[in-house]
Amino acid sequence: MNDYSAKDLSEPEDGDIRDDIPENIDKRAFEDMNNQIQIVLQDMKDKFQTMSDQILSRIDDMGARIDDLEKNISDLMIHAGLETPDK
Protein backbone atom coordinates (compact mmCIF):
# COMPACT_ATOMS: atom_id res chain seq x y z
CA MET A 1 0.00 0.00 0.00
CA ASN A 2 1.35 3.43 -0.90
CA ASP A 3 1.76 6.09 1.74
CA TYR A 4 0.56 9.36 0.26
CA SER A 5 1.28 11.42 3.37
CA ALA A 6 3.37 14.50 2.95
CA LYS A 7 7.11 13.88 2.97
CA ASP A 8 9.41 16.18 4.86
CA LEU A 9 11.56 17.87 2.25
CA SER A 10 13.80 19.72 4.68
CA GLU A 11 16.67 17.22 4.42
CA PRO A 12 17.76 16.00 0.99
CA GLU A 13 18.36 12.35 0.22
CA ASP A 14 20.98 10.99 -2.18
CA GLY A 15 19.98 11.79 -5.75
CA ASP A 16 17.44 14.33 -4.50
CA ILE A 17 16.46 17.01 -6.99
CA ARG A 18 17.68 19.61 -4.50
CA ASP A 19 21.23 18.48 -5.21
CA ASP A 20 20.80 20.34 -8.51
CA ILE A 21 19.59 23.59 -6.91
CA PRO A 22 22.10 26.35 -7.58
CA GLU A 23 23.73 27.76 -4.48
CA ASN A 24 22.43 31.25 -5.29
CA ILE A 25 18.80 30.21 -4.63
CA ASP A 26 17.72 31.23 -1.17
CA LYS A 27 17.57 27.98 0.82
CA ARG A 28 15.44 29.70 3.46
CA ALA A 29 12.82 30.57 0.83
CA PHE A 30 12.80 26.94 -0.27
CA GLU A 31 12.27 25.76 3.33
CA ASP A 32 9.52 28.33 3.86
CA MET A 33 7.75 27.17 0.72
CA ASN A 34 8.13 23.55 1.85
CA ASN A 35 6.63 24.42 5.24
CA GLN A 36 3.68 26.19 3.61
CA ILE A 37 3.05 23.21 1.34
CA GLN A 38 3.10 20.91 4.38
CA ILE A 39 0.55 23.12 6.13
CA VAL A 40 -1.75 23.16 3.08
CA LEU A 41 -1.51 19.38 2.67
CA GLN A 42 -2.29 18.79 6.35
CA ASP A 43 -5.24 21.18 6.12
CA MET A 44 -6.58 19.30 3.09
CA LYS A 45 -6.12 15.97 4.90
CA ASP A 46 -8.04 17.29 7.91
CA LYS A 47 -10.88 18.58 5.72
CA PHE A 48 -11.19 15.28 3.87
CA GLN A 49 -11.26 13.41 7.19
CA THR A 50 -14.01 15.71 8.48
CA MET A 51 -16.06 15.20 5.31
CA SER A 52 -15.56 11.44 5.51
CA ASP A 53 -16.72 11.39 9.12
CA GLN A 54 -19.80 13.44 8.23
CA ILE A 55 -20.70 11.12 5.35
CA LEU A 56 -20.37 8.02 7.56
CA SER A 57 -22.50 9.66 10.25
CA ARG A 58 -25.22 10.46 7.73
CA ILE A 59 -25.15 6.88 6.40
CA ASP A 60 -25.58 5.58 9.97
CA ASP A 61 -28.51 7.98 10.53
CA MET A 62 -30.11 6.86 7.27
CA GLY A 63 -29.76 3.21 8.31
CA ALA A 64 -31.49 3.92 11.62
CA ARG A 65 -34.32 5.74 9.84
CA ILE A 66 -34.79 2.81 7.44
CA ASP A 67 -34.96 0.41 10.38
CA ASP A 68 -37.61 2.61 12.04
CA LEU A 69 -39.58 2.80 8.78
CA GLU A 70 -39.54 -1.00 8.42
CA LYS A 71 -40.80 -1.38 11.99
CA ASN A 72 -43.57 1.17 11.44
CA ILE A 73 -44.69 -0.54 8.22
CA SER A 74 -44.73 -3.90 9.99
CA ASP A 75 -46.79 -2.43 12.85
CA LEU A 76 -49.27 -0.92 10.37
CA MET A 77 -49.62 -4.24 8.52
CA ILE A 78 -50.28 -6.04 11.82
CA HIS A 79 -52.82 -3.40 12.82
CA ALA A 80 -54.56 -3.72 9.43
CA GLY A 81 -54.70 -7.51 9.84
CA LEU A 82 -52.53 -8.21 6.82
CA GLU A 83 -49.82 -9.84 8.88
CA THR A 84 -49.68 -11.78 12.14
CA PRO A 85 -47.43 -10.50 14.92
CA ASP A 86 -44.15 -12.35 15.50
CA LYS A 87 -43.96 -13.79 18.99
What summary fits the major beta sheet? none
Low-confidence stretches: none
Provide mean pLDDT, rounded: 82
User: First CA to last CA: what distance?
Assistant: 50 Å
Q: Roughly how much helix do the residues carry, as a percent range? A: 55-70%
Form type: rod-shaped
Rg of Cα set: 28 Å
Q: Report the β-strand fraction as a percent range.
A: under 5%
Could you explain how this protein is built, in words?
By secondary structure, this protein is mainly alpha-helical. It is built from one helix and no strands. The chain has one helix at 27-79. It is rod-shaped, with a radius of gyration of 28 Å. The model has no long low-confidence stretch (mean pLDDT 82).
Core attributes:
mainly alpha, 87 residues
Sum this structure up briefly:
The protein is 61% helix and 0% strand. The chain is mainly α and 87 residues long. The mean pLDDT is 82.
